[in-house]
């Protein structure tokens, strides 16, 4: 699946998108950790789960955080990962 990174997450990854294989959000996080290391992983995950301030869209739909780690995914899904947004 195609995973795109935005803002500070893109800066840490060093690229704007990557192709990975994953069956669910949990395996996606582990694949990203394997590919990019703990720096990126720690930015988007805490204690093995998605951080509350990170936004993940799967095919344009916000997956939220409650039970999101088991959201099933397919190879043709498009995932976008956004850091916290601030401003006024």
Write up this protein.
By secondary structure, this protein is α+β, with helices and mostly antiparallel strands. The protein has one domain (2-82): Beta-grasp domain (Ubiquitin-like (UB roll)). It is 28% helix and 25% strand. It contains 3 helices and 7 strands; from the N terminus they run βαβααβββββ. The strands form 2 sheets. The chain has a 5-stranded mixed sheet. Strands 3-4 form a two-stranded antiparallel sheet. Strand 3 and strand 4 form a beta hairpin. Helix 2 runs antiparallel to helix 3.
SSE inventory with pairings:
Elements: E1 2-5, H1 8-13, E2 17-19, H2 25-36, H3 38-44, E3 45-46, E4 49-50, E5 55-58, E6 61-62, E7 78-82
Parallel strand pairs: 1-7
Antiparallel strand pairs: 1-2, 3-4, 5-6, 5-7
Helix pairs in contact: 2-3
Primary descriptors:
single chain; 88 residues; alpha+beta; Ubiquitin-like (UB roll); five-stranded mixed beta sheet; two-stranded antiparallel sheet; 7 strands; 28% helix; globular
